[in-house]
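Lab notebook, design round three. We kept the backbone fixed and only want residue identities now. Task for the bench partner: fill in a sequence for the structure below.
Input structure tokens:
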């Protein structure tokens, strides 16, 4: 933009050169299908809006993929945890069966193991409590991945697993106590093998 009181030769020359360059630029733009600056601004706005929409769509898609991946990780974690609990329950059940068999053999020999039987019953009840809790946790796990309130369902699963964990600890402690009772009772059994040897020597 030029400001002057008079139009001088220099101003005329500058305006003519500007017009000449403008005409060259317009011809070049037409030849290369380049739009005017105002059109460019609209194109840029359109492109920005399209890109924003693409990003939003991608964000929703990424969020859905992340949620799916998180659900798979949670389900995998729950499956592994429940499998570990089942394995622990199975080991304790097997131990309880062996202990019960030992109690029966000692009772056949006349040893009073009433207290050991009572504690064994307590251990079995704790194992049953753990098994029941694990089954509830497995059912609640479905709600974590497929339900409408996964956070609440996951907290419920954690709470139920804690119940199972405490029940298993209690069962284990009780079984150890039963084993101690059996060992103490067995150590008080007189050795009958020496008596039979002595009887044979007397005959």
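Proposed sequence:
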């Amino acid at each position: 933009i030029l400001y002057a009181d008079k139009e001088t030769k220099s101003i005329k020359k500058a305006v003519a050169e500007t017009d000449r360059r403008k005409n060259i630029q317009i011809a070049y733009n037409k030849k290369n299908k380049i739009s005017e600056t105002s059109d460019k601004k609209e194109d840029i706005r359109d492109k920005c809006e399209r890109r924003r929409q693409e990003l939003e769509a991608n964000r929703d898609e990424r969020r859905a993929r992340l949620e799916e991946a998180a659900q798979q990780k949670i389900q995998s974690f729950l499956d592994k945890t429940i499998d570990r609990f089942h394995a622990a329950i199975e080991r304790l059940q097997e131990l309880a069966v062996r202990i019960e068999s030992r109690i029966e053999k000692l009772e056949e020999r006349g040893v009073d193991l009433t207290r050991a039987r009572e504690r064994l019953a307590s251990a079995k009840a704790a194992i049953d409590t753990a098994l029941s809790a694990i089954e509830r946790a497995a059912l609640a796990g479905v709600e974590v991945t497929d339900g409408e309130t996964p956070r609440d369902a996951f907290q419920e699963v954690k709470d139920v697993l804690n119940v199972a964990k405490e029940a298993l600890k209690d069962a284990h402690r009780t079984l150890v106590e039963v084993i101690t009772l059996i060992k103490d009772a067995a150590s008080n059994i007189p050795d009958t093998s020496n008596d039979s040897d002595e009887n044979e020597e007397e005959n």
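Keep this in mind before ordering anything: The radius of gyration is 43 Å.
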